[in-house]
Specification:
Blueprint lengths: L4 H18 L9 H13 L8 H18 L8 E9 L4 E3 L2 E8 L10 E7 L10 E9 L12 H7 L4 E10 L6 H19 L2
Parallel strand pairs: 4-6
Antiparallel strand pairs: 1-3, 1-5, 2-3, 3-4, 5-6
Helix pairs in contact: 1-3, 2-3
Protein backbone atom coordinates (compact mmCIF):
# COMPACT_ATOMS: atom_id res chain seq x y z
CA UNK A 1 0.00 0.00 0.00
CA UNK A 2 1.57 3.27 -1.13
CA UNK A 3 1.61 6.27 1.24
CA UNK A 4 -1.00 8.99 0.78
CA UNK A 5 0.02 11.86 -1.53
CA UNK A 6 -0.25 14.31 1.37
CA UNK A 7 2.25 12.28 3.42
CA UNK A 8 4.66 12.12 0.47
CA UNK A 9 4.33 15.89 -0.04
CA UNK A 10 5.03 16.51 3.67
CA UNK A 11 8.11 14.27 3.59
CA UNK A 12 9.31 15.99 0.40
CA UNK A 13 8.81 19.44 1.98
CA UNK A 14 10.79 18.38 5.05
CA UNK A 15 13.56 16.97 2.86
CA UNK A 16 13.75 20.18 0.81
CA UNK A 17 14.03 22.29 3.97
CA UNK A 18 16.69 20.04 5.51
CA UNK A 19 18.75 20.07 2.31
CA UNK A 20 19.02 23.89 2.43
CA UNK A 21 19.85 23.86 6.15
CA UNK A 22 22.65 21.35 5.55
CA UNK A 23 24.38 23.55 2.96
CA UNK A 24 27.38 25.64 4.06
CA UNK A 25 26.03 28.68 2.16
CA UNK A 26 22.77 29.84 0.63
CA UNK A 27 22.32 28.84 -3.03
CA UNK A 28 22.14 31.62 -5.60
CA UNK A 29 19.86 32.05 -8.63
CA UNK A 30 21.94 29.52 -10.61
CA UNK A 31 20.28 26.76 -8.57
CA UNK A 32 16.85 27.65 -9.95
CA UNK A 33 17.48 25.87 -13.27
CA UNK A 34 18.13 22.39 -11.79
CA UNK A 35 15.21 22.82 -9.38
CA UNK A 36 12.92 23.78 -12.26
CA UNK A 37 14.10 20.66 -14.13
CA UNK A 38 13.23 18.49 -11.11
CA UNK A 39 9.79 20.12 -10.97
CA UNK A 40 9.17 19.49 -14.69
CA UNK A 41 10.19 15.84 -14.35
CA UNK A 42 7.82 15.44 -11.41
CA UNK A 43 4.98 16.88 -13.50
CA UNK A 44 5.65 14.44 -16.34
CA UNK A 45 5.64 11.35 -14.13
CA UNK A 46 2.25 10.10 -13.07
CA UNK A 47 1.89 10.03 -9.29
CA UNK A 48 5.06 12.05 -8.72
CA UNK A 49 3.37 15.42 -8.24
CA UNK A 50 3.66 15.31 -4.42
CA UNK A 51 7.44 15.43 -4.88
CA UNK A 52 7.00 18.95 -6.29
CA UNK A 53 7.02 20.00 -2.65
CA UNK A 54 10.78 19.29 -2.51
CA UNK A 55 11.96 21.99 -4.97
CA UNK A 56 9.28 24.39 -3.73
CA UNK A 57 10.49 23.91 -0.14
CA UNK A 58 14.09 24.51 -1.23
CA UNK A 59 13.19 27.81 -2.91
CA UNK A 60 10.96 28.89 0.00
CA UNK A 61 13.64 28.16 2.60
CA UNK A 62 16.32 30.00 0.61
CA UNK A 63 14.11 33.07 0.16
CA UNK A 64 13.12 33.10 3.85
CA UNK A 65 16.73 32.73 5.03
CA UNK A 66 17.94 35.39 2.59
CA UNK A 67 15.29 37.83 3.82
CA UNK A 68 16.31 37.19 7.44
CA UNK A 69 20.03 37.63 6.69
CA UNK A 70 19.39 40.81 4.70
CA UNK A 71 17.92 42.36 7.87
CA UNK A 72 21.21 41.96 9.76
CA UNK A 73 23.08 45.17 10.44
CA UNK A 74 26.20 45.61 8.28
CA UNK A 75 29.47 46.39 10.06
CA UNK A 76 29.57 49.80 8.35
CA UNK A 77 26.42 50.88 10.23
CA UNK A 78 27.88 50.26 13.71
CA UNK A 79 27.64 53.16 16.13
CA UNK A 80 25.11 55.42 17.84
CA UNK A 81 21.66 55.80 16.33
CA UNK A 82 18.60 57.79 17.35
CA UNK A 83 15.50 55.60 17.18
CA UNK A 84 11.84 55.57 18.09
CA UNK A 85 9.96 52.39 18.90
CA UNK A 86 8.63 50.17 21.63
CA UNK A 87 9.71 47.32 23.91
CA UNK A 88 8.41 44.20 22.13
CA UNK A 89 9.24 41.51 24.73
CA UNK A 90 9.05 41.14 28.48
CA UNK A 91 12.34 42.61 29.74
CA UNK A 92 14.83 40.16 31.27
CA UNK A 93 15.93 41.80 34.52
CA UNK A 94 19.29 41.47 36.24
CA UNK A 95 20.87 43.61 38.97
CA UNK A 96 21.27 47.08 37.50
CA UNK A 97 20.22 46.20 33.95
CA UNK A 98 17.43 44.99 31.68
CA UNK A 99 17.63 43.23 28.31
CA UNK A 100 14.72 43.32 25.88
CA UNK A 101 13.58 43.24 22.28
CA UNK A 102 12.92 46.61 20.65
CA UNK A 103 10.91 47.26 17.48
CA UNK A 104 11.85 50.42 15.59
CA UNK A 105 8.81 52.32 14.34
CA UNK A 106 8.85 54.79 11.47
CA UNK A 107 11.92 55.90 9.57
CA UNK A 108 15.10 53.96 10.35
CA UNK A 109 18.70 55.10 9.85
CA UNK A 110 20.45 53.37 6.97
CA UNK A 111 21.56 49.86 7.90
CA UNK A 112 19.51 49.69 11.11
CA UNK A 113 17.16 46.66 11.17
CA UNK A 114 13.61 46.86 12.46
CA UNK A 115 14.14 44.52 15.42
CA UNK A 116 16.92 44.96 17.98
CA UNK A 117 18.12 43.23 21.15
CA UNK A 118 19.06 45.97 23.62
CA UNK A 119 20.51 46.13 27.11
CA UNK A 120 19.68 49.11 29.32
CA UNK A 121 21.92 49.80 32.29
CA UNK A 122 20.12 51.46 35.23
CA UNK A 123 16.73 51.22 33.50
CA UNK A 124 13.53 52.71 34.93
CA UNK A 125 11.90 50.41 37.46
CA UNK A 126 8.63 50.53 35.53
CA UNK A 127 10.09 49.28 32.23
CA UNK A 128 7.56 46.92 30.64
CA UNK A 129 6.52 45.34 27.35
CA UNK A 130 4.77 47.83 25.08
CA UNK A 131 6.50 50.93 26.52
CA UNK A 132 7.46 53.44 23.83
CA UNK A 133 10.75 55.36 23.79
CA UNK A 134 12.80 57.75 21.72
CA UNK A 135 16.30 56.59 22.47
CA UNK A 136 19.94 56.71 21.48
CA UNK A 137 21.40 53.23 21.17
CA UNK A 138 24.91 52.06 20.36
CA UNK A 139 24.42 49.16 17.92
CA UNK A 140 26.57 46.44 16.37
CA UNK A 141 25.91 43.38 14.19
CA UNK A 142 24.80 40.18 15.97
CA UNK A 143 27.72 38.11 17.19
CA UNK A 144 28.16 35.12 19.44
CA UNK A 145 30.99 32.86 20.57
CA UNK A 146 31.30 29.51 18.75
CA UNK A 147 31.69 27.10 21.63
CA UNK A 148 31.06 23.47 20.58
CA UNK A 149 28.23 22.05 22.63
CA UNK A 150 27.42 25.45 24.14
CA UNK A 151 24.55 27.84 23.59
CA UNK A 152 24.70 29.40 20.11
CA UNK A 153 23.73 33.00 20.86
CA UNK A 154 24.17 34.22 17.29
CA UNK A 155 21.87 31.48 15.97
CA UNK A 156 19.31 32.36 18.65
CA UNK A 157 19.39 36.00 17.55
CA UNK A 158 18.88 34.97 13.91
CA UNK A 159 15.99 32.61 14.70
CA UNK A 160 14.28 35.31 16.79
CA UNK A 161 14.72 37.94 14.05
CA UNK A 162 17.12 40.27 15.88
CA UNK A 163 19.12 42.15 13.26
CA UNK A 164 21.42 43.99 15.68
CA UNK A 165 22.37 44.14 19.35
CA UNK A 166 23.46 47.02 21.52
CA UNK A 167 22.78 49.11 24.59
CA UNK A 168 20.76 52.20 25.45
CA UNK A 169 22.79 55.38 26.00
CA UNK A 170 19.89 57.79 26.52
CA UNK A 171 16.12 57.49 26.36
CA UNK A 172 12.96 59.54 26.65
CA UNK A 173 9.58 57.92 27.17
CA UNK A 174 6.97 58.60 24.50
CA UNK A 175 3.22 58.25 24.23
CA UNK A 176 2.26 54.63 23.53
CA UNK A 177 2.25 53.60 19.87
CA UNK A 178 -1.06 52.58 18.38
CA UNK A 179 -1.30 49.23 16.67
CA UNK A 180 -2.47 45.74 17.47
CA UNK A 181 0.92 44.32 18.54
CA UNK A 182 1.90 47.23 20.79
CA UNK A 183 -1.58 47.30 22.38
CA UNK A 184 -1.50 43.53 22.95
CA UNK A 185 1.93 43.79 24.60
CA UNK A 186 0.72 46.53 26.96
CA UNK A 187 -2.31 44.42 27.88
CA UNK A 188 -0.07 41.40 28.62
CA UNK A 189 2.29 43.55 30.73
CA UNK A 190 -0.67 44.94 32.70
CA UNK A 191 -2.01 41.42 33.26
CA UNK A 192 1.44 40.22 34.38
CA UNK A 193 1.71 43.05 36.94
CA UNK A 194 -1.70 42.15 38.36
CA UNK A 195 -0.74 38.49 38.60
CA UNK A 196 2.50 39.33 40.42
CA UNK A 197 0.59 41.55 42.84
CA UNK A 198 -2.05 38.86 43.48
CA UNK A 199 0.25 35.87 43.95
CA UNK A 200 2.58 35.81 47.01
Amino acid sequence: MSPAPLVVAAVAWLAGTLVVHALPWLPGPEWLAPLALVALLALRCRGAWPWLALPVACVWTVLAADARLTERMPAAAMGDHELSGYVDTFPTLAPGQATFGFTVVGERPRGVPQRLRLTWYAPPATLAAGDAFALTARLRPPHGARNPGGFDYEQWLLVNDYGAVGYVRAAEEQLPFKGLRATWLRFRASLARRLVAAVP
